[in-house]
Amino acid sequence: MPLLEVLYAAEEPLPLERRRAFAREAVAIFQEVLGTPPGRLRLVIHRLHPDESLGLLADDEADREREETAP
Prior knowledge:
Helix content: 40-55%
Strand order of the largest sheet: 1-2
CATH topology: Macrophage Migration Inhibitory Factor
CATH architecture: 2-Layer Sandwich
Shape: elongated
Distance between the termini: 53 Å
Largest sheet: 2 strands, parallel
Structural class: alpha+beta
Strand content: 15-25%
Number of strands: 2
Low-confidence stretches: none
């Protein structure tokens, strides 16, 4: 049984309708690409506070690299 775990960083949770729309699209993609039968995909959406996201580190690293290579 496929499991799709989604992590996103935001101050506020996604509205229910946006989560449902994402789930519908994910189900369609898994059916098309993997042949997952309807009702078999398990989807979990986790919201992280932006300060808890390691994605911030990637931005800091990119900024640092730009500063090091700047003339």
